[in-house]
Amino acid sequence: MTIESKEIDHEKELKYKSFIGEHLALLRVRKTQKKRKPHFIRQESWRYKRVGVSWRRPRGIDSKMRVKKKGRPKSVEVGYRSPKIVRGFHPIGLEEKLVHNVEDLKDVAQDQVVRIGHTVGLLKRLKITEKAKELGLHVVNIRGVDLGESKESKKTSV
Fold it and tell me: What confidence tens digit (pLDDT) does each residue in 19-36 have?
């Protein structure tokens, strides 16, 4: 290795460290923003039982909420968004990858975390978590896997 290539590698490493530091700082910013963000509710949902609370944009010509009158619930605006670089990241600072079977784990990089699809059953979920452990990947939602292992051990012991 030449001196120039060592310098280039060192520069890449420094850029990577500053990139990671920037990510962590922006994740902290996103966390404080989420604390301050109001819970957006649908107009008049507190008034009528038939109107759900899930957000819908107020469009009426006489709507007080659309005009942003004082005392009315807050409306969704661009200013409530999180920083673009960390948008959609898991709180630990890594990008999530959705997995439905063991073969999907091949596409997951080391700088990503695994999220198992909610439609995946218990047996396939166990296989995915075992394979992820072998590959050294972090699984975000391991729900039900511990329960499944205890059921299998009971079946073999009886």
Answer: 677 888 899 999 999 999
Q: What's at 108, amino acid-wise?
A: V
Which residues, at least 6 apart from 75, have a Cβ–Cβ distance to it below 8 Å? Answer: 40, 57, 58, 65, 66, 68
Give the dihedral of Cα atoms 61, 63, 65, 68; nearest 10 deg.
60
- The string of DSSP letters for 48-80 reads -TTS-SS------TT-TTTTT-TTSPPPP-GGG
Q: 3-state class of 99 per DSSP?
A: strand
Dihedral class, residue 57 (left if φ above 0, else alpha if ψ from -120 to 50, else beta): beta
CA 101 to chain centroid, in Å, comes to 19
**79 Cβ contact partners less than 8 Å away, ≥ 6 residues apart:** none
pTM of the model: 0.64
